[in-house]
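// run 5 | inverse folding | seed 20
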């Protein structure tokens, strides 16, 4: 196997595609293939407003555009790139469901029809494809999918659930494509890190997850003798993608998803399993912001040259009329059902979902408080999972302007239809809960995986425990316990509060997803005092914003300028 040549070897990419009927003889001939790679679209079927951040701008998204993303714009790009390519495949790395109100209303029907209209050849079954249930996903595939759905590492046959049995016949471990004589094998690896999270409300996948490397070794070894090129398409994350590239002797190209990163240019990883061979890794970003075009030249089973181009999706791309026609009725029903443009509050700066130091964030603090203080809830403390808050609240492009937060933006920030669940925890259970937060966060760079209200603690990532936990108290600023004037209070995360007592009882407000053990919060799953209020988490945040903004006279960023140190990471 030869090292991949840079695309300066342009002559190779200009080789005739040998078009014609029948299978051409490609022995000894360098053959060009274009792979169009998308992933993590997350229901951003319609163009949406946003302010591109630094990384997006570095990758080509320009400030000041009317909108970004959108299926009509992507369809135009895909048609243009195919027309300029010859041999091509369109592969999607999963999570095309969940993330915008069009999913909440139509349960994935629109996304499936759009993917089929795109001309997708194969797509991964991402974890969020199951958010409306295994039965719903099976139905959407059966009714609307004109593409192959892949997931080699999900064993649906292990379940007695009839809907999973249907999925066992709908989701394949791999697919082989004959692209005008060039045979391409694609193995799909679905998400495992969120396997405990693939449920919403009463939905649970109930499948057996198969080990990544051995499963992949089996299927890539199975298809390699049958194909010219072995592609592994994943929804695992970059670490796993790189591990696969280094250790699997059969793989030529990895198309990754799940972590929402985009590569420009694509990465090249030296293989440890086959010294002298390089493996390409592509990532196409998220939220319909980019299409990744990967051009490769294959000769006798080796990739001998490659190039890539990350194509940003912005409002100056003309929309595809056929895609607009497909979406027309859905858009009309969406507008008639949900007033997406209704204003909720305003801000003069961005409210971020992640804290600068890995601790609590301004948006996370707002969401946790909105749940805790909702009328009819009003518990001792609140908590939500950080990744359930899917994006920032946008700030204005010009800091002198005002950004209006609308219902549509709230759906983008909180796309899941979660409700607020309350429960009583003993002090010992609170300790176990905060220990889990520290442990889970430690494996993610000590960036907190939860947001809290009316509580403070030090997140000791080195020892994976929560220390100096307080719930309630005076919240007076302090540097040591001696600074706390009220008897019994301690100084935790620079504020005075009441330390938890192992035998005391504390009422928690959280979302029903983690109350049922989502994201690994098993410490809550078996609590017998749980009560699902039925109150929408998104609605609670909406009413809270409207209330604290005092009739929209106070910008949200003045009320929540930053994280206030509720969670102090200790590395």
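// decoded
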């Amino acid at each position: 196997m030869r090292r991949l040549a840079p695309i300066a070897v342009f002559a190779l990419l200009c080789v005739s595609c040998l078009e014609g009927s029948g299978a051409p003889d490609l022995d000894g001939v360098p053959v060009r293939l274009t792979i169009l790679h998308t992933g993590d679209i997350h229901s951003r079927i319609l163009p949406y407003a946003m302010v591109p951040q630094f990384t997006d701008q570095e990758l080509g998204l320009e400030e000041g555009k009317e909108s970004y993303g959108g299926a009509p714009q992507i369809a135009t790009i895909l048609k243009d790139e195919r027309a300029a390519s010859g041999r091509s495949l369109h592969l999607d790395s999963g999570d095309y469901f969940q993330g915008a109100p069009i999913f909440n209303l139509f349960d994935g029907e629109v996304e499936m029809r759009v993917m089929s209209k795109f001309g997708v050849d194969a797509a991964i079954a991402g974890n969020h494809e199951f958010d409306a249930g295994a039965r719903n996903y099976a139905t959407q595939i059966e009714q609307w999918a004109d593409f192959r759905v892949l997931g080699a590492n999900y064993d649906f046959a292990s379940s007695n659930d009839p809907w999973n049995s249907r999925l066992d016949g709908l989701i394949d471990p791999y697919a082989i494509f004959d692209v005008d004589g060039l045979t391409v094998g694609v193995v799909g690896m679905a998400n495992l890190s969120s396997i405990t999270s693939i449920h919403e409300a009463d939905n649970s996948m109930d499948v057996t997850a198969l080990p990544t490397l051995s499963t992949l070794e089996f299927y890539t070894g199975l298809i390699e003798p049958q194909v010219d090129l072995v592609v592994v398409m994943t929804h695992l994350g970059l670490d796993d993608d790189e591990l696969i590239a280094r250790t699997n002797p059969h793989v030529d190209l990895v198309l990754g998803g799940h972590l929402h990163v985009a590569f420009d240019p694509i990465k090249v990883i030296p293989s440890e399993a086959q010294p002298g061979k390089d493996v390409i890794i592509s990532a196409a970003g998220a939220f319909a912001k980019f299409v990744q075009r990967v051009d490769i030249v294959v000769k006798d089973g080796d990739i001998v040259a490659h190039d890539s181009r990350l194509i940003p999706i912005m409002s100056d791309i003309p929309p595809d009329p056929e895609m607009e026609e497909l979406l027309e009725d859905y858009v009309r029903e969406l507008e008639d059902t949900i007033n997406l443009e209704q204003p909720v509050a305003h801000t003069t700066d961005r409210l971020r979902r992640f804290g600068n130091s890995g601790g609590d964030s301004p948006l996370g603090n707002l969401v946790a408080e909105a749940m805790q203080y909702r009328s009819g809830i009003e518990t001792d403390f609140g908590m939500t999972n950080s990744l359930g808050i899917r994006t920032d609240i946008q700030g204005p492009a010009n800091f002198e302007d005002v950004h209006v937060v609308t219902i549509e933006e709230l759906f983008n920030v909180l796309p899941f239809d979660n409700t607020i669940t309350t429960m009583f925890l003993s002090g010992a259970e609170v300790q176990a809960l905060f220990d889990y937060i520290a442990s889970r966060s430690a494996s993610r760079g000590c960036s907190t995986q939860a947001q809290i209200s009316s509580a403070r603690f030090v997140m000791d990532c080195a020892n994976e425990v929560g220390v100096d936990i307080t719930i309630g108290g005076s919240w007076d600023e302090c540097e040591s316990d001696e600074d706390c004037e009220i008897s019994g209070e301690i100084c935790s995360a620079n504020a005075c509060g009441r330390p938890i007592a192992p035998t005391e009882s504390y009422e928690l407000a959280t979302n029903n997803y983690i109350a049922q053990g989502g994201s690994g919060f098993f410490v809550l799953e078996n609590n017998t005092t749980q009560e699902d209020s039925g109150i929408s988490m998104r609605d609670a945040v909406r009413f809270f914003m409207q209330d604290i903004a005092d009739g929209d006279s106070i910008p949200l960023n003045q009320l929540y300028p930053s994280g206030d140190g509720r969670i102090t990471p200790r590395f």
